[in-house]
Fold this sequence. Notes:
Layout: H1 9-21, E1 27-31, H2 46-61, H3 71-88, H4 101-111, H5 132-147, H6 157-169, E2 176-178, E3 181-183, H7 185-193, E4 200-204, E5 213-216, E6 227-230, H8 233-244, E7 250-254, E8 261-262, E9 267-268, H9 280-285, H10 298-306, E10 314-323, E11 329-334, E12 346-350, H11 351-357, E13 358-364, H12 370-376
Helix pairs in contact: 2-4, 3-4, 3-6, 5-6
Amino acid sequence: MNLKVLVIAVIFLAVGNLNAQNGFEFKEVVNIETTNVKNQGASGTCWSYSANSFLETEMIRIGKKPVDLAEMFFVKKVYLDKGDRYVRMHGALEFGQGGALPDVFEMYKKYGAVPQEAFSGLNYGTDINRHGEMSAILQAMLDAVIKNKNKKLTPVWKKAYESVLDVYLGDNEDKFQYNGKSYTPKSFAKEVVGLDGNDYVQFTSFTHQPFYQNMVIMVPDNWNYGLSMNVPMDEMIEVVDQCLKNGYSVAWASDVSEKFFSWKKGMAYVPGKSYRNMQDEEKETMFSYPVSEAKVTQERRQMEYDNYQTTDDHAMHIVGISKDQSGKEWYLVKNSWDTRNPFEGYLYVSKEYFKLKTTAFMINKNALTSKMKKKYRF
């Protein structure tokens, strides 16, 4: 099909800045219309920001006016569900601020959604999210419950726990006004957002589990044991390209700890020479102009995951494809670390980097061909 390329002015500016600063020249192949870049602040909530950006972009795709969705609504609901599971697991569960992409879709189906204007989650005197104190207090409460000094859990510990979330994030999400009409989260999700939470599926690629079956990715932040369809590494690229070239964006979870991921430079790729073997000049110029890139294998991908070199660090949102002057394709990725980088909040990620460092990605299954749906049993 012919895809109408939707151009956002901020991307033109970003590409201009990159061409002026570095030796790269990019030409758009696909650029999917999306909402503005957000800032997750001092909080480990990238999973909510990326998934909400994805949902907002899905609203645009189906012809709706996008809503700035409240990331903290999903964060609060995840904390409630995670707290219950943490106690039931006697504390043998990752707590804290992290999460996974399926969490948002699970909360969307279970609880609904809320606009940002009705639930900012900033009840503690700051302009951006700062969750260190709140997260520490919540875990301390749960640990006290688990110690069970009374020899029997009280019937009110959940109420006390939720009260802390109410104080920090707000207690007004159950009913709110939007454009002069009263909504609940459920009615807002149905009438305004208008997306079916069952349409979204996650993919990954690891050899320690069978291909073409759903698996639980063993990373600490997957507290809810979200499932992913396990496919060969190269098929991840096929699926993502199928989505993007047909107007569907992709939510993406990845490792970002490597020296060849640079938010400051707005790029990520897999250099042909390992970083530790580079000369100082090579390190300084590794993002200055196109260089040879390693060809990632399934074996290398698995080895880096097995040895904790690939960890579940961060979630972002893929909204396009561009080619550099050598003809190599890069994914255009929207981040949630504000706009203070050469791309005004975006970065370019090579497909080899995607193969190597992806932990999982989320798509709308309706973007797939009938052959793909049959293969993955969707």
